[in-house]
Amino acid sequence: MMPPSESFPVNAEDMLIGALLRVPAQAIHRRIITELNAAGFDDLRLPHIAVLQFPGPDEVRPATLAERAGMSKQAMNRLLGSLEGFGYIVRTNAPGEGGARIVRFTQRGHAAYAKIIDILRVIEREWSSELGPERFAQLKTLLTLVWESPLVR
Amino acid sequence: MMPPSESFPVNAEDMLIGALLRVPAQAIHRRIITELNAAGFDDLRLPHIAVLQFPGPDEVRPATLAERAGMSKQAMNRLLGSLEGFGYIVRTNAPGEGGARIVRFTQRGHAAYAKIIDILRVIEREWSSELGPERFAQLKTLLTLVWESPLVR
DNA sequence: CTCCAAGAGTAAACTAAGTTTACCGATGCA
DNA sequence: TGCATCGGTAAACTTAGTTTACTCTTGGAG
Predict the structure, then answer these.
(1) Which protein residue's Cα is closest to nucleotide C27 at C1'?
(2) Which of A15, A123, A150 sits opposite B147 (nearest CB)?
(3) What is the percentage of chain B residues whose pLDDT exceeds 90?
(4) Which is higher by pLDDT, A29 or A4?
């Protein structure tokens, strides 16, 4: 739907980490979907982000994707079903591995994933020029520390 | 549902800003809901975050809340309906202002919101002690810059 | 060798969420 | 007086995600 256009007073010191992370993360998601749609990948919607998120679903088991996304295998399976229907991925049997399956990108899937990377790189350039390259690099470094810490597990 | 327990290789330099923001933001949301539920506010679910998010729905119009959350008035109204049913808020008519309504916290609503602030403060303390206070402060400063910039509007 | 537990995938029913479309009521201005 | 506008609602439709339950395969314990 419509993007938020926040205009309430911003008191920097009052902001808690939750809002500080949520708002930009949301803005990025919306933008990814919007630009993906505009680029011809117009059957992708917000929930598909759960599948397409880093590091992508190529050569991965559905159950692994479900865990990454923090959702049930069944919910992930439905998403995969729609992505397969749209021609972004295929699921094939993992040979010799029980009933296990492997998700693989189709050409269209690869293209969409590459487009996401492109969009993110553009966003990074914008942020970098808005904040200044050193500060942006610092931000990424700090977020990477968070990522690597046990905080978000 | 189950939280993700990421264990794929993390190459710091490959991480794009999207994933760096999304993962911790998601982790925080899950934790807020989990602890809120554990604290007796057990009818609150993930979507309610859209209403309870900073700076909270007290003394605010439904349409404003919808815009903040980036969703339709109708979707917000449903959320408000459920929150009202659970006794977290009440909607009263704004006197003299057309059919306009005002959302107000009940006591329970105030308590839940205060609990969210508490949880976030605990999280901030944890992050601060994990990263070191200076680095954590720096992270917040940088995120505040992002927030104040036109990047996320 | 057989049986059974464990793990992966799938299916179906149910619930919840959010969008579109459409309508009501009040305000305020031409 | 008439009407455009804005805020709020309602209903129908669609999409998502959970729970519950079943299948198939593998691998071990007996």
Answers:
(1) B98
(2) A15
(3) 79
(4) A29
